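Re-running Zinc-type alcohol dehydrogenase-like protein to confirm reproducibility after the cluster update. Everything else is unchanged from the original entry.
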Amino acid sequence: MTSQETMKAVGLFRYLPIDHPESLINVNIEKPLPTGKDLLIKVKAISVNPVDTKVRAPKEKTEDAPRILGWDVAGIVEQTGPDCTLFEPGNEVYYAGSITRPGGNSEFHLVDERIAGKKPKSLTFADAAALPLTAITAWEALYERLGVSRNADDNAGKTILIIGAAGGVGSIATQLAKIAGLTIIGTASRPESTQWVKEKGADHIINHYEAFLAQLNVIGLTNVDYILCLNSTDQHWQNMAEAIAPQGKICSIVETDQALNMNLLKNKSVTFAWELMFTRAMFQTSDMIEQHNLLNEVAQLIDNGSLRGTVTQRLAPINAANLRKAHAMLEEGHTIGKIVLEHFE
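Result of re-run:
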């Protein structure tokens, strides 16, 4: 095996609208070799997330070499770097990877073993590929940023509002919040998304296009202890400030287009936190291995039936045309659950 071997991938040279045929193209690139703690993965399935469409969104910049997107992968360890201790060739893994490195929309991919987990045994590669980014995000948001106890007894009577509960992260966060014993209010606005959120364990549904507090009052609540915002922080800021309990906690994963008025949280001594699941890999934090650990725990929850997968659409094979289709579906803004792609041609 030499570094001159090539592999198929889907990438871009220019940042274009998704309906442009060159927004994502089929390319052949050099097959990488693992060094350090990297695993070389034979990619079996991938998923798409809003981060893919944000990175690909039109801008003036151009690339000299094809940029490869994709931050949800399930595959098989082909080769390990010399410093690897957690995996060996033949192991089945799943992971989201790092935003600062090439993505996984390629036949082979490098990932630091500290942010990869053992694939759930009960899932196909396609079903497993839908989980890593959303599971890491939901887990870190709930248990680390919001500080929700993992002991259900501690959460008796406590409430969480999940804004955008039908999406990829919301679908996992709702289930994890249910396992944690929280009373869950999910937001949804269409019959099909409302049904999906209920099936994932939400106790109540409110409409994110209407004032939150009045809707909470109707179901007998004066406020909520936690809020997880998975959609338009700007749009929901005032509503969140009104709905959060004194000394409550808010976490968002969606960047803002304008400055937030943090003073709205002061009188209630409310905690606000951001969650970005790429932080640990991006900054090579000393606790990077926590993503390996949590992915292994998520796999156990899947395999014992406590947590269910979130795939709603499957495309094959993995190529530029199907990835453009998946990006277009995400950009429409009505996606429920996750879209996965499998099999390189």
